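Session log. Operator J.P. requested a structure for one protein chain; no other inputs attached. Running the standard single-chain path with token output.
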Amino acid sequence: MENPLEKKRRGYLSFFCDGVIDSVAHRELDIKKKSSAYYKQGYDFGLTFRDALTKEDLDEIRQEKK
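Structure written below.
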């Protein structure tokens, strides 16, 4: 049986992960979850991650063309 603190942490992590997935894969904010601070942090992290990934991919493509 898990204690209440573990259950709470799992909920926070779930909201963070949902934010990351929505920003990277779906590219839109979920209206139902946008009030969660953890969801917003995950969404912001996902946007930053997606931008960095895109820049690296573009740099790699440019190097291959040379």
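Operator note: The chain has two helices and no strands.
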